[in-house]
Amino acid sequence: MKFPKEGEFITIKSYKHDGSLHRTWRDTMVLKTTENALIGCNDHTLVIESDGRRWKTREPALVYFHKHYWFNIVTMIRQKGASYYCNMASPFLIDEEGAKYIDYDLDVKVFPDGEKRLLDVDEYEEHSKKWDYPDEIDLILKEHIKILVEWINEEKGPFSEGYVDLWYDRYKQLTGKK
């Protein structure tokens, strides 16, 4: 499967461990793809929940996926500064339907002031029992939370100083927005 090119739109689909569809983002603009990573932008993007509810994202957000990490990062661009919503999830894959990953419930939120919070621990424990997450998945996720926190603390990747300006400016260039 070929990777989408800069300026093309893709769909992003998240699934749960049992294979059920969790959430779909329509029309994410691709800003960069490499053999291992994808960076895109959602801007008032249609989101469809597994129960059929539909809503649109409120602000522009950069999305970052990597084939070697068990997390993806959504950078929400707001007036008070960027905030980050990091999903603990399987590495993504791309096929004819778009980018896909398995959402493993745990999330790390980073506020504009740098505060970090681990979210949805109860949901993770509930789903771990319900769908019998293998011990290996639990170990991988715990290790990748450590990697993610290291990225946050060291301002690597999407947490680096110039990331938002670079990629949001590229999005505005491609769309003609100011």
UniProtKB/TrEMBL annotation:
Q: Does this UniProt record's set of keywords contain Cell wall biogenesis/degradation?
A: no
Query: Which keywords, in A-to-Z order, does the entry hold?
Result: Hydrolase, Magnesium, Metal-binding
Record's superkingdom? Bacteria
Which InterPro entries has this protein been placed in?
DUF402, FomD-like_sf, Ntdp-like, SA1684
Q: What is this protein called?
A: DUF402 domain-containing protein
Q: Where is the DUF402 domain?
A: 18-156
GO molecular function annotations of the record: hydrolase activity; metal ion binding
What is the source species?
Alkalibacterium thalassium
Q: Which Pfam families match?
A: DUF402 (PF04167)
The record ties this protein, via NCBIfam families, to: PRK13662.1
